[in-house]
User: What shape does this take?
Amino acid sequence: MALIGVFDSGVGGLSILDEALRQLPQNDYIYLADSANAPYGEKSSEWIAKRSLALCNYLASKGCDAIVVACNTATAEAIKQIRESTSVLIIGVEPGIKPAAMQSQNNIVGILATEATLKSDKFNALINTLPNDCQFIKQAGPGLVPLIESGKADSEETLELLAKHLEPIQVAGADTLVLGCTHYPFLRKAIRKLLGESIIIIDTSDAVVRQLKRQLESLNIKSDGKEHGSMLFISSKDEAILMSMAQDLMSADLTLHSIEANILGEVR
Ligand code: DGL
Assistant: This one.
């Protein structure tokens, strides 16, 4: 049996879980949302690293064969420490700036991510590996994660705030937008409304899950042949709300899986 842990500061990682259920429905999953502490993106590097490490160790202690750090911010601040602290397979996520630079026709790429991701050494090292003929417009999106966490992804309030954050990207004439936070795929409709149908949107969920699949195969970690595995949702805030948001936000049919939800106790 393959048990996969998926961790995020809140409901953002559901965008990765959704893709995981599409490509790998037979695995068992634990989805861990630290919604009591979201957003991570405006917290200090030290806090993010310590908390992410503690929560990934918690998932490892539950017997996960692999853990997806389905949070760009946690990956940027803590992936190295997480990998060093466990022998469990760890898959991280990072803003898809390389594919964006390759797909952009006019070499102007907008990046919408959290403040912490944009400031991180990992992100800046990544951007420095790219040829400098591409112009990157980096934009933080404060306020967006709390709106998505409170179920307002499709609201007028979110559209207004998003319009403000996307303005510099629009003014620069970007033809490609990187979604550098796993919460942002849930704003796809609003983004299309503001930037139109022709903008190329780069979301790395598909690539992340393909990577997970390859790694599970190479380590010979197999599921036990069921068609649909089980699903345990754990929230540090409200497990019933997490479960109902998962049903609303994800396109996967969760009724095909046996679902349970728990509240997260204290984790050190
Ligand atoms: N979903 C997360 C990310 O991908 C973090 C958002 C937040 O908590 O600020 O960066």
